[in-house]
Specification:
71 residues; alpha+beta; two-stranded parallel ribbon; 3 helices; 54% helix; flat
Length: 71
């Protein structure tokens, strides 16, 4: 069980949003973070993508830390 965050590009024309969400739903406990951008958001729309990426990473970190405190 690995904490996972999935970023969904809501304007992606290559990988439909429903398919991205289906992938996320197949990962137990995955958190979904939407970015209002396209397939190449990481490169071409970093001002929108990076804040979502940072929040997704923080979510994973929080869940790992919570697990360690409970152990």
């Amino acid at each position: 069980d690995v904490p996972t965050s999935v970023i969904v590009a809501t304007r992606d024309r290559f990988i439909p949003t429903r398919r991205q969400r289906r992938l996320a739903a197949a990962i137990p406990g995955a958190m979904v973070y939407d970015v209002d951008s396209h397939h190449a958001a990481l490169v071409l729309a970093s001002e929108e993508f990076v804040p979502v990426l940072v929040e997704a990473c923080r979510s994973v970190t929080r869940r790992i830390e919570k697990r360690h405190r409970a152990a």
